[in-house]
What does this fold into?
Amino acid sequence: MMRRTLMAAGLVGVSAFVIAGCGGSSTSDAGTTGTTEAPAGAAVGSGATFPSTAYLRWCQESGTCSYVAKGSGAGIKDLTTSTVQWAGSDAPLTDAETAAVTGTVLYFPTLLGAVTVPTNVTGVSTPLNLTGKAIAGIYAGTITTWNDPAIASINPGVTLPASAITVCARSDSSGTSYNFSTYLAAVSKDFATTVGASKTPQWGAKSVLSSPGNPGVANCVKGNDNAIGYVDLADARAAGIADKAAAVGTAGAFVLPTTASISAAGNVASVPTNLVVSVTGSTAKGAYPLTAITYALAVTGRDNAATKKAFTYFLGDKAQGQLAGLGFAPLPANLATAATAQLSRLK
It folds into this structure.
């Protein structure tokens, strides 16, 4: 399998995000970087780029935390080695990752977000309709041109070029990749067999442009003709490609990623004791199927006083009320209640 890795130089937002809660010239805009000194006593965190727009703002305005966005896998590694006090992840730890942690990992759901599928197809100015199977075929390497019948048949009236599809993906260990590949594996047996669900999928497409972070993938799509990618809605907005995010679903039920469709996917009937819930592939009416829950993680047995302050802010009305404006959706009531109750386990 041929792979090309995009260099970070010149791309907006592909370097790590660092932000803290007071002073400085930091910014909370998606796809941008900012650096300040962490306030004394702040809970130091790292991890997923998917929720970084929200986490950066919350840390800055509350003064309770700092955050470096560098991918779920890297954040989990930092948490395991006690490099940070908390981590952001869009995927649960693997058995091996869990075994490497001394103490119990606590999952605190913080927000709902969409894994959008933006495209940059020559001559096409409106969002395409894409089935999960068609997206799976593209990333598995069985669909290679935009005028493939699997795409053309669900986009009547759209003139699709015979051009090769440029595939953009994450180069780092990523919760976004995990949720994206989990959905594709669920809707396509071929994809499940040849690629499978992983934070580091080995895509079947012959040539993949790989970039670190969601901002890197967004800029890959924006900068390459006939490209497709997967990226959170906030970073798609920041890159100016949210209007090209595909409507995903099945014939007659294609859904665009919006706050309303994200919220619809998050209406879970029950919450398990570990608070790990999957809403990817939701079949609820009006639900965007590529919706994910992202988590803030902490470990029992450590000094979590500062982390508890940060997480309390994350789950509060002010922080949750900002999410729609940032490209996310707040937690449903039952999940928010369970997460708030679990704060008592942080000492």
Observations:
- The two ends are 48 Å apart (CA to CA).
- Residues 143 and 214 are 23 Å apart (CA to CA).
